[in-house]
Amino acid sequence: MTKTQVYPVNPDAPEPAAIAAAAAVIRSGHLVAFPTETVYGLGANACDEAAIARIFAAKERPFADPLIVHLAAADQLAAVCVDLPRLAWELAAAFWPGPLTLVLWRSSVVAANVSGGRDTVAVRVPAHPVAQALLVASGVPIAAPSANRFSRPSPTTAQHVLEDLDGRVDIVLDAGATTIGLESTVVDLTSDPPRLLRPGGIPAEELLAYMPDLHVPPTPNVARLEEGLVAPGTLLRHYSPRARVLLVRGDAAAFCVLAHAAVELADAQGLRVGLLVTDADLPCCADLLVATVSLGAAEDYSAMARTLFARLRSLDACGVDIILAREISVTGLGRAIRDRLFRAAEGVVIEDRAGLEEQIDRGFGG
Ligand code: TXA
Ligand code: MG
Questions:
Q1: Is the CB of 155 under 6 A from ligand 1?
Q2: What are the backbone angles phi and psi of residue 2, rounded to the nearest 5°?
Q3: What pLDDT was estimated at residue 151?
Q4: Residues 22-51: pLDDT tens digits?
Q5: What is the residue-averaged pLDDT of the chain?
Q6: What is the DSSP string of 293-308?
Q7: What is the CB neighbour count within 10 angstroms for residue 75?
Q8: 169 falls in which pLDDT band (50, 70, 90)?
Q9: Averaged over 288-300, what is the pLDDT?
Q10: Alpha helices in 127-168, H assignment, sequence order
Q11: pLDDT of residue 219
Q12: Is 147 exposed, middle or buried (0-12, 13-18, 19+ CB in 10 A)?
């Protein structure tokens, strides 16, 4: 058990003393949680195998699930990767600093356990001034997964980090809520054609303009842990709150009917339902006296992305057993929101009352 210290920092101009303290912790082989523009990361020196092992222990993350290496600037790519394709530099110039992660061939400078022993490494240059300052002051590449316990929703505030990792991280740099709210888009440039591994903060449509041959698998693209070897990042039961998420397909009217049915069916079993809706669904659900949170306007995907994980956590805090949510379209940032909701729902989409009954009858043993 470590005594976790929280340093409040100005998100636009972080205090040098706090950054220096955090950088010293990184250089000494220990852990710092810090904000990026996407979510908070749990960082350690990417060249220090023992420090990286501490990340996996703190998160209780399987060692086979590889980490993203963060760099202060694109010109450091050549220090952590080998055989860099020209496309990597073009994408870096277009999207960095920003929420795009590139999977490339790993240089031996990067600790092997960063990538679970793979010969590839995922890299990005974050745009957040606090992440930037920490990277510059540390002088080393920083490997950082999202700063949540394995399979919990990613943290978008320092408070979320503490909920999951208090006593397991040395310093938390608290710069308030992150602006994008969903993780970076991950693209594999070591496969031919390049592949979208995880939809995220940069919409697939923007990438296709630079790489027309990018393979974009249908969203959701998921695998179960039991199936053995699966592509990293495609696991189900990622981003899960404690409550079970039931994802409903259909328009507002269909959602309204199923929300009423869900409350009735759950009531009969002594289970509590919470609703994760958009503003448009609020009037229809107003007569249901259950915990209801809105992601905001249905057409504002940026706002929805920013609040999704916090809303899932807040419904959990209400003590509900079931979170009923509506499927999101695949356009723009919607693809990433849809992906996270689908994983939280363990890959099940409900289309009618029979499907709902089947899921509620499945039980809630965890
Ligand atoms: O926005 C983000 O990407 C945040 C912030 C902190 O930068 N980080 C993040 O890290 O979301 P994490 O560990 O939660 O997700 C990393 C994703 C996983 O899906 C992982 O499987 C994939 O990147 N990944 C990492 N290295 C890889 C590799 N060598 N090959 C394929 N996928 C890789
Ligand atoms: Mg994560």
A1: no
A2: -105, 150
A3: 81
A4: 999 999 999 999 999 999 999 999 999 999
A5: 93
A6: EE-S-TT-HHHHHHHH
A7: 11
A8: very high
A9: 92
A10: 129-138, 158-165
A11: 72
A12: buried
Q: Which atom of ligand 1 is nearest to the CA of 184?
A: 1
Q: Rounded to an integer, what distance in angstroms lies between the CA atom of residue 40 and that of residue 294?
A: 23
Higher pLDDT, residue 342 or 241: 342
The pLDDT, as a whole number, for residue 361 is: 87
Residue type for position 251: D
Buried b (16+ CB within 10 A) or exposed e, 108-132: eebbebbbeebebbbbbbbbbbbbb
Nearest Cα residue to 201 out of 310, 35, 336, 40: 336
Ligand 2 is an ion; its neighbours by CB within 5 Å are 146
Ligand 1, atom 17: closest residue by C-alpha? 233
Testing ligand 1's pocket by substitution, the residue of 100, 186, 215 carrying the most ligand atoms inside 8 A of its CB is 186
Query: Is pLDDT at 363 greater than 90 in this prediction?
Result: no
Q: Is the peptide bond before 97 cis (omega within 30 degrees of 0)?
A: yes
| Parallel/antiparallel/unpaired status of strands 100-106 and 81-82 | antiparallel
Residue pair 125/144 in contact by the 8 Å Cβ criterion: no
| CA of residue 74 to ligand 2 center, whole Å | 23
Is 40 in contact with 155 (CB distance < 8 Å)? yes
d(CA 199, CA 20): 34
pLDDT band at 234 (very low <50, low <70, confident <90, very high): low
For ligand 1, is residue 232 a contact (CB within 6 Å)?
yes
User: Closest Cα to residue 124, out of 165, 59, 58, 80?
Assistant: 80
pLDDT in tens, 86-108: 999 999 999 999 999 999 999 99
- 176-213 pLDDT, tens digit each: 999 999 999 999 999 999 999 999 999 999 999 999 99
Work out which ligand 1 atom sits closest to the CA atom of 65.
Answer: 21
Peptide bond into 232 cis (omega under 30): no
Mutate which of 38, 56, 61, 101 for ligand 1? The one with the most ligand atoms within 8 Å of its CB, which is 101
Ligand showing the shortest atom-to-Cα distance for residue 145: 1
**Residue whose CA is closest, atom 22 of ligand 1?**
233
Which ligand neighbours the alpha carbon of 39 most closely? 1
Residue with the two structure tokens 């949540």? 148
